[in-house]
Amino acid sequence: MAMIKPYKINIAQDQLDDLQARLAKTIWPTVINEDSIDAGPSDKYIKEIVHYLQHKFDWRNAEAEINQYPQFITEIDGQNIHFLHVKSGEPNATPLILIHGWPGSFVEFLNVIELLTKPAKHGGKADEAFDLVIPTLPGFGFSGPTREAGWNNGRIAAALHELMQRLGYEKYGVQGADAGAIIAPEMARLNPESVIGVHLNAATLGFIPFGPVDEGDIAKFTDNEKVRLSRLQEFMSNYFGFNMIQSTRPQSLSYAITDSPAGLLAWMSELFTNFGRNPKMVSHDRFLTNFMVYWTTGTAGSSIDLYFQNAHDPSAWAPKANSGVPTGVAVFQEGDVALRKYGEEGNNIVRWTEYEKGGHYAALEVPQVWSKDVREFFGDLR
N or C: which end of the chain has fewer CB within 10 A? Predict the structure, then answer.
């Protein structure tokens, strides 16, 4: 069996100094309106976040916060996998793997670790506790860049199942958001005998229509569903460019976002600020901690390769079989687009909860609400 090695983050000071030097020499583009988000993140916001990174953000403090949690690296299928493994101390804790997407990381889950491992301290019950495994996806962050083609959602799902088995978890739950909300159901399809339940938020593929929607179906939608459908249509019309570029020409983009920290900040910021509508949904410190995971590891380019690999995997777009594994979906109305009608076609949905507050990064934005939904879903399965 491959070794599981303890890991601590310790970014060299020379690397941090180089980042500051690059930021100080940023060449700013010419813009017509510094407040406009019509063509991308506003010039005003990017200059604000760059200034914050230069003068206010404390990476060493963020590094110490992360390092308080047990971290490890192991090799699976030729690829390093970095992960946090935080046990609750409760004898009957449920093993749960939390899966991030792009441009996220394990940083998405820092606000909910104690809420899930020590629920009794936060209004929950001790028997609702989880033992958490929080991996960094292959090609991202401290898992390091991928070195070969083929690391698509299916291969990642198989690797993460192997990780759980390697840790001794024969039965476990899965939670995923964004790309994680695609990988999590795939883990259930590959290993239905091991996955006790799947909890999702920020669900897209498998939970949205492709092409025009029948007027008769729209008439049956709730008011909230109509809002989400409208948001989806706007997204596909005005904000899908990042996906198309990453799915077709990621290498061209990689040179820019690997070399320029301001460029990477701008590219990542759209999804972290609800496409510029609300830059306060995620704090500057959390956004920049997440940014540093990419920047300091040089994985901006390899992370977006996930889109290219999936776009060139014929099975990624084929109809998915229903695993039969109980699935819970939390929908956060300020940012999500999931529609139950489409999700039920390939998932055994036993819980569907909608919340007015919270968006794409609900675990960061509304951690108490998000964690309570996770606890209640898996509590029903115990």
Answer: N
